Amino acid sequence: MSKLGVTFLLAACLAHAQARTITLREAVRLALEQNPDVAIAHLNESKAAEEVRAAKDPFIPRLTVGSGLAYSSGFPLSIEGSAPSVFQAQAVGFVMNRRQSHLVSQAKEVRRGAAIDTESQRQEAAHRAAVLFLEADRAGRLAQAARQQLESLEKIAEAIRLRIEEGRELPLEAKRASLNLARARQRVTALEADRRNAVASLAVVLGLDPAADLQVAIEERPPLTAPTSADEIAAAAIENSKELRRLESALAAKGFEIKAARAERLPQVDLVAQYALLGRFNNYEDFFRRFQRHNGQLGVAFQIPLFTGPGSEARVSQAESDAARLRLELRSARDRTVLEARRLADQLRQAESAREVARLELELAREQLSLLMAQLEEGRASLRQVEEARFAENEKWIAWLDTHYAVELVQLHLLKQTGGLLAALDATR
User: Fold this and answer.
1) For residue 287, is pLDDT > 80?
2) What's the whole-number mean pLDDT along residues 412-422?
3) Could you report the per-residue pLDDT of 182-238, keeping only the tens digit for each?
4) At residue 109, does pLDDT exceed 90?
5) CA distance 162 to 382
6) What confidence tier does 10 reach under pLDDT thresholds 50, 70, 90?
7) Is the pLDDT of residue 96 over 60?
8) Phi and psi for 226 in degrees, rounded to 5?
9) Is the pLDDT of residue 427 over 70?
């Protein structure tokens, strides 16, 4: 073998060795840890927490130090409103400011809404990862079944060719067999493409490179347990809906914004503290009876707004309009949640019924195949009949597999809707 051939062989072996096989539980865990949308939600939550600190800042006295050092000729004039001094310090902070207190409450509610959005993004990422994992698993299993069908069709085509040579079949049957083979190959190609697309989409949800070599583990998953009663599903969906909690939080934050706008008319009390070290070179002794180098004062400043202008009323009206809109959105979202919950309950019953029918059809096809195989051994059935029955059995297996995945998908949607998705998938929170 040439050096180039050896190089390509080693590269292929290395690539195969680097293929990563993940389970459903691992996929969900990676989605919770690395999904970009979840990371963005965490950043927004951190930003909202800092907004609370910023809103509280005016209530913490702010200390500034500096100097108004200057030489005075004649009467000592002020420098930026203060007497000339060698050193000066000033502390100012809110003591009572209802407007700012409501803004702090609004910031806290916004932070709570950001936390709700983070949890919503976590559930969305876990749900998306689970759905794509099932899609990749389904496509892989169906492709394997389709390849088995292709083998059966190849055997059927070979049997037909022999019968045509013997003059026991029309040449038309060969063309029909070729058409069936082409359809089977097309089916395998399409399913392989579906699997690759699902794996690439799964990698993106997991925060990995779309070209990452991922393989979904073929495993026996424990059945998902989701509520089945329409009333139970609707009640759980209302209780655990992150969209409803987010809208309620936004409505509460808007209420604090209204209170803050109305509080602009209320009195304000500020803490004021000052200290100044005066110098003798500013002629204080020439114009004042008594000179003291160290000077300080501590007190409060009262402000009573008499006329706030039309801006305050405008801000109240705008906030009230936003609150009315949020109430309508909340009512609409609650109705949609109930309707979606009941629709999923009906869909689950239909999917389970279809799966049961597919299971019975599969059992019947298997019994027919077993019967033909027994007749083949006795010489009472042909290989073509057996392969056709095997093909039909594979078709029923594919149909059952489709209905089984349909049930799992509806159960995933139900668990997401009712807030039990992460617990059901046993994800580490």
Assistant:
1) no
2) 88
3) 988 998 899 899 989 998 999 999 988 888 888 888 777 777 777 777 888 888 889
4) yes
5) 13
6) very low
7) yes
8) -125, 150
9) no
Cα separation of 254 and 259, whole Å? 9
Cβ 82 vs Cβ 64: under 8 Å: no
Task: Specify the pairing of strand 268-277 against strand 214-216.
Answer: unpaired
The class of domain 224-265+320-423 in CATH terms is mainly alpha
| Extents of the domains making up the chain | 224-265+320-423
Cβ atoms of 127 and 210 within 8 Å: the answer is no
Integer Cα distance of 66 and 277 in angstroms: 11
Contact 237, 266 (CB under 8 A): no
Give the DSSP H/E element, type plus range, for residue 397. helix 383-418
For residues 300 and 93, the answer to whether their CB atoms sit within 8 Å is: no
Cβ proximity of 250 and 326 under 8 Å: yes
Rounded Cα gap, residues 103 and 255, in angstroms: 10
Q: How confident is the model at residue 1 (pLDDT cuts 50, 70, 90)?
A: very low
Which of 117, 114, 102 lies closest to 55 in space, CA to CA?
102
pLDDT band of 303, cuts 50, 70, 90:
confident
Q: Let me know the angle formed at the C-alpha of 83 by 79 and 85, rounded to the nearest 5 degrees.
A: 95
CA distance 243 to 177: 55
Buried/exposed code over 369-400 (b: 16+ C-beta within 10 A; e: otherwise):
beebeeeeeeeebeebbbbbbbbbbbebbbbb
- 207-213 long-range contacts (CB < 8 A, ≥24 apart) are 207/30, 207/31, 207/33, 207/34, 207/35, 207/36, 207/39, 208/30, 208/34, 212/20, 213/15, 213/18, 213/19, 213/20
Please count the residues of the chain: 429
The full DSSP string for 62-89 is: EEEEE------SSS---BTTB---SEEE
SS3 call for 383:
helix
Residue carrying structure tokens 């019975």 = 360
